[in-house]
């Protein structure tokens, strides 16, 4: 019952690996460490160093470890940079996924949970995104994730591959102090790093049509996310029918100003954020319903905003 977690040395992937272990399910990690960290992988979990673009390496890992399914988190995830590096983004996220699927087919591995993204929706014209909301990605990153979903769909039609894709928004917090978000682009590490360095965090845009004038987004705790990845894998292993895609959303969202207030309260560092102009392309509000995932994938917002900030702060202080 071993599952391969691609990108399992990254921030989200390492939490998924821990969740598998807690559920009593063996896991093996494949990661090229381009953004992951070997120390994030538990000592008793095998780590295969390499890229999903290496079909033979992936096929060998599947065979050697007796893998029955894959949780696919490996990829290039920076939407803004993807505009500057589209070929790199497509190579990692589209070609890489195709190579992974080829390796799975060669070894008879017929189950996959795919880490997709809310970026497939672009700027939706609705207050609450559902799985029926039209997709309209606005970056090579979002496009690559949507194409990844199509690859799974088409491989399912061709070979019977059993699959589901999880679309999620802003993942924050930490389940344990030794795992933390090291992204140079995500809001939580940017704010915490600024506070530690004595700088003032910045809000981009305070004149949006929202209750406090700042952008509203879905922020979800990484441990809750990891739980639903395991639930999806177990459902596929049990032969249960799943939807092709699921949103892992909060249903209500949090504003950037609310996050800044929580940061000040939790850290004990009083500050008044700098107010900067809007960034081009930032929509006022993107919030998703998680009803389908709650029905099928044990999805639940188990952590409050304070929990999210506090766990991220503890992990940041530990490093």
From TrEMBL:
Xref: SUPFAM superfamilies: NAD(P)-binding Rossmann-fold domains
Which GO BP terms sit in this record? galactose catabolic process via UDP-galactose, Leloir pathway
Answer whether the UniProt record assigns the keyword Magnesium to this protein: no
Task: Provide an example Pfam family for this protein.
Answer: Epimerase
Q: In which pathway does it act?
A: Carbohydrate metabolism; galactose metabolism
* Cofactor(s) needed for function: NAD(+)
Q: What class of enzyme is it?
A: isomerase
Q: Which UniProt keywords apply?
A: Carbohydrate metabolism, Isomerase, NAD
- Reading the lineage from the top rank, the first entry is Bacteria
Catalyses: UDP-alpha-D-glucose = UDP-alpha-D-galactose
The GO molecular function terms of this record are: UDP-glucose 4-epimerase activity
Among InterPro entries, the record links this protein to: Epimerase_deHydtase, NAD(P)-bd_dom_sf, UDP_G4E
Which residue range or ranges hold the NAD-dependent epimerase/dehydratase domain? 3-249
**Its EC number(s):** 5.1.3.2
Residue ranges spanning the membrane: these are none
The similarity comment for this entry is: Belongs to the NAD(P)-dependent epimerase/dehydratase family.
Q: What is this protein called?
A: UDP-glucose 4-epimerase
Origin species, per record, is Cellulomonas cellasea DSM 20118
């Amino acid at each position: 019952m071993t599952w391969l977690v691609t990108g399992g040395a990254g921030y989200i992937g390492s939490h998924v690996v821990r969740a598998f272990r807690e559920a009593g399910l063996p896991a093996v990690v494949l990661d090229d460490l381009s953004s992951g960290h070997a120390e994030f992988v538990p000592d008793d979990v095998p780590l295969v160093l390499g890229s999903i673009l290496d079909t033979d390496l992936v096929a060998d890992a599947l065979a050697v470890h007796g893998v029955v399914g894959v949780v696919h988190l490996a990829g290039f995830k920076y939407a803004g940079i993807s505009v500057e590096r589209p070929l790199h983004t497509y190579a990692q996220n589209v070609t890489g996924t195709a190579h992974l699927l080829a390796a799975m087919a060669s070894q008879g591995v017929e189950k996959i949970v795919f880490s997709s993204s809310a970026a497939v929706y672009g700027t939706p014209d609705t207050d609450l995104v559902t799985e029926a909301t039209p997709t309209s990605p606005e970056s090579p990153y979002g496009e690559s994730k949507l194409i990844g979903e199509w690859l799974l769909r088409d491989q399912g039609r061709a070979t019977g591959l059993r699959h589901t894709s999880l679309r999620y928004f802003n993942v924050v917090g930490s389940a344990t102090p030794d795992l933390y978000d090291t992204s140079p682009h995500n809001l939580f590490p940017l704010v915490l790093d600024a506070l530690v360095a004595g700088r003032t965090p910045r809000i981009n845009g305070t004149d949006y049509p929202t209750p406090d004038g700042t952008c509203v987004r879905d922020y979800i705790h990484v441990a809750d996310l990891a739980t639903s990845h395991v639930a999806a894998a177990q459902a596929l292993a049990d032969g249960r029918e799943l939807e092709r895609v699921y949103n892992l959303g909060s249903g209500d969202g949090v504003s950037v100003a609310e996050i800044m207030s929580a940061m000040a309260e939790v850290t004990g560092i009083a500050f008044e954020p700098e107010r900067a102009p809007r960034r081009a392309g930032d929509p006022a509000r993107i919030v998703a319903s998680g009803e389908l995932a709650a029905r099928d994938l044990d999805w639940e917002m188990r952590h409050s905003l304070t929990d999210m900030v506090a766990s991220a702060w503890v992990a940041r202080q530990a490093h």
